[in-house]
Specification:
It is built from two helices and no strands. This is Flp family type IVb pilin. Keywords: Membrane, Transmembrane, Transmembrane helix.
């Protein structure tokens, strides 16, 4: 009976799950930021490539 009570009061597993959830949330945010930044960089590099490939000057 005491073993069961000790098991029910032990919260170390819950703490590990909370840390896992926090790490997963941070990973999702980082992946989203990298994806958004990648899209912006792709657009910028496409503009640069177009300017370099054409004979016209590009101001912006």
């Amino acid at each position: 009976m005491q073993t069961l009570r000790r098991f029910l009061k032990d919260e170390s597993g819950a703490t590990a799950i909370e840390y896992g959830l926090i790490a997963a949330l941070i990973a999702v945010v980082v992946i989203g930021a990298i994806k958004a930044l990648g899209t912006n960089l792709e657009t910028t590099f496409d503009k640069i490539a177009d300017c370099l490939g054409s004979s016209a000057s590009c101001s912006s």
